[in-house]
Design a protein that fits this description.
The structure is a single chain. The two termini are about 25 Å apart. The longest helix is centred in the C-terminal third of the chain and has 19 residues, at about 265-280. By secondary structure, the chain is α/β, with parallel strands linked by helices. The chain has helices at about 15-25, 55, 60-70, 85-95, 110-120, 150, 155-165, 170-185, 265-280, 290-295; strands at about 5-10, 30-35, 45-50, 75, 100-105, 130-135, 195-200, 205-215, 220-230, 235-245, 250-255, 285. The strands form two sheets. Strands 2-1-3-4-5-12 form a six-stranded parallel beta sheet, with helices on both faces. The chain folds into two domains: about 5-105 and about 265-295, Rossmann fold (3-Layer(aba) Sandwich), CATH 3.40.50.720; about 110-255, Dihydrodipicolinate Reductase, domain 2. This is Dihydrodipicolinate reductase.
């Protein structure tokens, strides 16, 4: 197996861990880290792109990703699959650079989406899906937040509501992936979830907890609860409930931190690193579908756009 030369494009703890993660993989080789698209290290074949929320808010990926692809680099990004990227520009850039692009949806919510999707795809009579996420954050935050303040914890209600809006694409992509898996395309791919935000503050008006309810029609609900970590309980928990006409089934997932890494960041890094080899080996174009499901077996839903 050939060794893929990989550069990490980004700042923050996740970018640091990705550089170390590349070095630990026998089929990958690190060419370094960059914070500027024109400054990709020489010899790089694939770029791991982890933009911050601030960069996403300024639409930087709309310029960065096509430029990298046009320059001949395969790109694996932590952007959500539903990110507002110029698809026509991406396809033209892939043709010009003979390159491939994939958005992993690098975010802790992806693990619940993957597991529930796998379970639900083998069940034919599910009528409703409900997810509950409990995320306890360290002071440094988790990707794509760099601090607790980025999510509004310890700050103002205005900041918390802005943080909810900033990650909307990640959650929306997960909701649509589940809808497609469970209800076989019966939903509207352009539908936007209804979002309700509840912010709990202390007597001084400082945010202690943020709860977000997302509903994609009457069949899919997703509740997220974000707070600062104050206990020794696992910092990331999910409860997955599927309902049929006659019964309910529930699964609880608990993820604890290991070696000083929050499990949310660990999941983001694993998703990005696992995608490098299949994307590099894929035909030129845009590769869709979550590669953590399709990495070891063919799947017609892993679509590449030929020239």
């Amino acid at each position: 197996m050939s060794i893929v030369a990989v550069a990490v494009f980004g700042t923050g703890p996740v970018a640091d861990r990705l550089v170390a993660g590349v070095d630990r993989r026998p089929d990958l080789r690190s060419t370094g880290r960059t914070t500027s698209a024109p400054a990709v290290p020489e010899g790089t074949a694939c770029v791991l792109y982890v933009p911050t929320l601030a960069e996403i808010a300024t639409d930087a990926p709309k310029d960065v990703v096509p430029r990298l692809l046009r320059d001949g680099y395969d790109v694996v990004s932590a952007l959500p699959p539903g990110a507002d990227l110029p698809v026509t520009d991406l396809r033209e850039a892939c043709r010009a650079g003979d390159s491939t692009f994939h958005a992993t949806g690098g975010f802790q919510t992806a693990i619940a989406t993957r597991i529930l999707r796998s379970l639900s795809e083998v069940t034919t009579d599910i009528r409703r899906i409900e997810l509950e996420e409990e995320l306890e954050l360290p002071a440094a935050g988790v990707y794509p937040w760099n601090t607790l303040g980025d999510i509004g914890i310890g700050g103002t209600e205005v900041a918390a509501r802005s943080a909810v809006a900033a990650v909307a694409d990640y959650y929306e992509a997960g909701l649509h992936a589940l809808e497609d898996a469970v209800f076989a395309g019966a939903g509207d791919p352009e539908a936007r979830p209804v979002v309700t935000v509840e912010v709990r503050v202390d007597d001084a008006g400082t945010v202690e907890k943020v709860t977000v309810d997302r509903a994609l029609g009457p069949r899919i609900g997703y509740r997220s609860t974000w707070s600062a970590r104050t206990t020794d309980d696992p910092p990331l928990r999910y409860r997955l409930v599927t309902s049929t006409d006659t019964a309910k089934g529930a699964t609880t997932l608990r993820f604890d931190a290991g070696q000083g890494v929050h499990p949310a960041d660990h999941l983001t890094c694993v998703g990005l690193l696992d995608a490098v080899r299949p994307i590099h080996d894929s035909a030129q174009g845009i590769a869709h579908r979550d590669l953590s499901i399709t990495y070891l077996m063919p799947d017609e839903r892993l679509i590449t756009r030929p020239r």
